[in-house]
């Protein structure tokens, strides 16, 4: 790129221009006008999607709480049957088969969703299902939303995600520190 250095215009000036051009491609430029009406449309769609996501989250959390209530009632029922009505000799095989059914249900969940059969995996799966149902029920234009998100990638939501990602995660630091000792 730099063959000889000439004081007035020659190769040195061309080299500076090439460096500036190469660096200019690395700097992201604003794709559109900040007053673009499509930004307002995106903001309205983001508000509507936030409502849908909030509703989906509350529905899934309700399901999880009902699941916990079912487990508590089942455990209390098994305790009652084990210690008052029947004996452990009768209840042991029943408990074994119930536990085996839970394992099979977890395995079937994995086969169906390809997600880890954990509480978090179940939550994510149910959330996406509820979200899809609510998007359909609210007639939310997800295709238009995705188009606008691609056009305007830097929105307030993403800026908040970047700022929260930049914050320090103490739990990770503690885990790393635990390995040092």
Automatic annotation (TrEMBL):
InterPro entries linked to this entry: MCU_C, MCU_fam
Membrane topology, from the record: Multi-pass membrane protein
Domain Calcium uniporter protein C-terminal: 34-148
Pfam families membership: MCU
GO cellular component terms given for this protein: uniplex complex
Bilayer-crossing regions: 64-84, 90-110
Molecular function in Gene Ontology: calcium channel activity; uniporter activity
Keywords (A to Z) from UniProt: Calcium, Calcium transport, Ion transport, Membrane, Transmembrane, Transmembrane helix, Transport
Top-level lineage group: Eukaryota
Biological-process GO terms, alphabetical: calcium import into the mitochondrion; mitochondrial calcium ion homeostasis
Compartment list: Membrane
Family as reported in the entry's similarity comment: Belongs to the MCU (TC 1.A.77) family.
Protein name: Calcium uniporter protein C-terminal domain-containing protein
Organism: Gossypium armourianum
Source lineage: Eukaryota, Viridiplantae, Streptophyta, Embryophyta, Tracheophyta
């Amino acid at each position: 790129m730099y063959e000889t250095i000439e004081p007035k215009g020659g190769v040195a000036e061309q080299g500076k221009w090439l460096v500036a051009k190469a660096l200019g491609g690395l700097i992201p430029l604003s794709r559109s006008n900040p007053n673009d009406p499509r930004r307002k449309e995106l903001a309205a769609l983001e508000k509507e999607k936030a409502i849908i996501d909030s509703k989906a989250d509350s529905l899934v959390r309700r399901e999880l709480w009902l699941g916990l209530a079912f487990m508590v009632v089942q455990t209390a029922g098994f305790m009652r049957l084990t210690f008052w009505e029947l004996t452990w000799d009768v209840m042991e095989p029943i408990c074994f088969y119930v536990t085996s059914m839970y394992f099979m249900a977890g395995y079937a969940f994995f086969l169906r969703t390809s997600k880890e059969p954990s509480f978090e995996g179940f939550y994510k799966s149910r959330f996406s299902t509820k979200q899809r149902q609510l998007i359909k029920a609210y007639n939310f234009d997800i295709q238009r939303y995705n188009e606008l998100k691609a056009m305007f990638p830097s929105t307030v939501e993403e800026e908040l995600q970047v700022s929260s990602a930049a914050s320090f995660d103490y739990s990770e630091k503690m885990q790393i520190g635990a390995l040092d000792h």
